[in-house]
Design goal:
The complex is a heterodimer of chains A (374) and B (117). With 374 residues, chain A is α/β, with parallel strands linked by helices. Chain A has 14 helices and 11 strands. Chain A has one domain: Thiolase/Chalcone synthase (Peroxisomal Thiolase, Chain A, domain 1). In chain A, strand 5 and strand 6 form a beta hairpin. In chain A, helix 7 crosses helix 11 and helix 10 packs across helix 11. Chain B has one domain. Chain B is built from 1 helix and 8 strands, in the order αββββββββ. In chain B, strands 4-5-6-8-7 form a 5-stranded mixed beta barrel. The radius of gyration of chain B is 15 Å and the shape is globular. The mean pLDDT of chain B is 96. The chains are: A alpha/beta (374), B mainly beta (117). At the A-B interface, helix 5, helix 6 and strand 5 of A face strand 4, strand 5 and strand 6 of B. The structure holds zinc ion.
Chain lengths: 374, 117
């Protein structure tokens, strides 16, 4: 693989009072400064969640006319997919320098709805919304209920994921819960139930936030100011939009997206030093750890309790930031870990990082493996 | 009004059946997800199945839903899975046997829900 990440930045996070474009701009200018590049260098652009013409909209706002864009909409996994598409575009010679960006002011704008976004023409609106599922949490709740039943697991196994996320957040000054103090399993269990067995504390935050990364060829990356973070492999899987479509709630697309990424990189789960896993809900982490082969089916609760792998080292969507779609911030933290910039939360000697995005209701999955330049 | 919804007025739960390969599916589509064929008919479900999973919803997504209520995936004995509600008092658990019941909508259509067998 011959493409590298050369710049990464967050925008303001939390409750910002900023617009989507202002947050995008903060992240984009931050990532360009980090890379030592300017807007004039950017000839590829990928983004989502801005408008119907998301990449076009951001290109207009920035005053650039890119040779390549992508606005594939796949929820929180889109940004991991953009890394794959960007690597392909750069390797194919369609563009040289890709900016991937995201920004959301969902907290400040109060734009989040418990029912999700219902589009009248979809089968889900006709056949599923009459039953009143919360979107997306009720789907994850059913996956969690099935998980507890199939594996004899307990709500404590779910809660431990939120506890572990908080431990990392207490090491990250940018985390929304940085000053919130430790979380206990009992706190999670006593938190108000939203869609059983998931409580408020089993759910990710609702915050503003954004981020950006810059990719270019590895050859060029070696001349830039930051140590290159090499794209080692990627894989995707797209499975369902309906809540009744998946035959087995415990076999999410992460199984296949992970296998595809590992195969491309010539690596396996044992080679991963640090992982950034989309933690929309606590159950998402248990299913993803198992799907990506870090442990066997039903073993993730114990795996998390043993703190067997450093993952979600920024505090994750549960305790750091969750701006509607969190996928880009997974990549930012993976890059920083491989550059050794993470201070008290740094995983010593991290050589290989995995970022796994999950979109919708376990609908879309994309796994990216990143590594230091050897 | 599709035949599927029309049948609910008579208390019949239809599954779409592929005339080419016999595959049964829900929700109704213009093609068979088993073989890609487009010659499709209907088969009435016996209305028996098992709870694949469920969740008790404690916050309402809209005024017509008053929590708490139970959203579930029910796996019909014929194979297809439906998103539905579980109704009646029960200590719900996965794999529990359930049978078809109906909730009448304002326009006379009926919504298939399930109760403990
Ligand atoms: Zn067929």
């Amino acid at each position: 693989m011959s493409v590298a990440v050369v710049g990464a930045a967050e925008s303001e996070l939390g409750v910002t009072g900023k617009t989507i474009m202002e947050l995008q701009t903060q992240a984009i200018t931050g990532a360009l400064a980090d890379a030592g590049l300017s807007l004039a260098d950017v000839d590829g652009l990928a983004t989502a969640g801005v408008s119907r013409f998301s990449a076009t909209q951001v290109a207009d706002y920035l005053g650039i006319r890119p040779a390549w864009t992508d606005s594939t909409f796949a929820g929180g996994s889109a940004f991991e997919m953009y890394v794959a598409r960007a690597a392909q575009a750069i390797e194919a010679g369609q563009c040289t320098t890709v900016l991937i960006s995201y920004g959301s002011n969902q907290r400040s704008a109060r734009s989040r709805s418990l029912a999700g976004v219902l589009e009248p023409h979809t089968p889900e609106t006709e056949f599923e919304s009459p039953y009143g599922p919360l979107y997306p949490i009720s789907y994850y709740a059913m996956a969690a209920q099935r998980y507890l039943h199939a594996h004899g697991a307990k709500r404590e196994d779910l809660a431990e994921v939120a506890v572990a996320a908080r431990e990392w957040a207490l090491l990250n000054p940018r985390a929304y819960r940085y000053e919130a103090g430790p979380l206990t399993v009992d706190d999670v269990l006593a938190s108000p139930m939203v869609s059983s067995p998931l409580t408020v504390a089993d759910c990710c935050l609702v915050t503003d936030g954004g981020g950006a990364i810059i990719l270019t060829s590895l050859e060029r990356a070696r001349d830039l100011r930051r140590p290159p973070v090499v794209v080692l492999g990627y894989g995707e899987a797209t499975t369902n939009t309906g809540m009744a479509s998946a035959g087995d709630l415990l076999e999410p697309g992460s199984i296949m997206s992970g296998r595809r990424a590992y195969a491309m990189a010539g690596l396996g789960p044992q080679d991963v030093d640090v992982a950034q896993l989309y933690d929309s809900f606590t159950i998402t982490v248990l299913l993803t750890l198992e799907g990506l082969g870090f442990c066997g089916p039903g073993e993730a609760g114990d795996f998390v309790r043993r703190r067997a792998l450093p993952y979600n080292t920024n505090g994750g969507g549960l305790s750091y930031c969750h701006p509607g779609m969190y996928g880009l911030l997974l990549l930012v933290e993976a890059v920083r870990q491989l550059r050794g910039e993470c201070g008290p939360r740094q995983v010593d000697g991290a050589q290989v990082a995995l970022a796994h995005g999950t979109g919708g209701i376990l609908s879309t999955h994309a796994t990216v493996l990143l590594g230091v330049d050897r | 009004m599709t035949p599927w919804w029309e049948a609910t007025r008579e208390g019949r739960l239809l599954l779409q059946r592929c005339e080419g390969c016999g595959h049964l599916q829900h929700y109704p589509r213009a093609l068979c997800t088993g073989c890609g064929g487009t010659d499709l008919g209907w088969q009435e479900s016996a209305g028996r199945g098992a709870v694949d999973s469920f969740t008790v919803v404690h916050r309402s997504p809209s005024p017509e839903h008053a929590p708490p209520y139970v959203v579930a995936r029910v796996r019909l004995d014929e194979g297809p899975i439906l998103l539905t509600n579980l109704v009646g008092d029960a200590d719900w658990h996965c794999d529990q046997r359930v049978r078809l019941a109906w909730r009448t909508l304002d326009d006379g259509r009926r919504l298939p829900v399930f109760e403990q067998e």
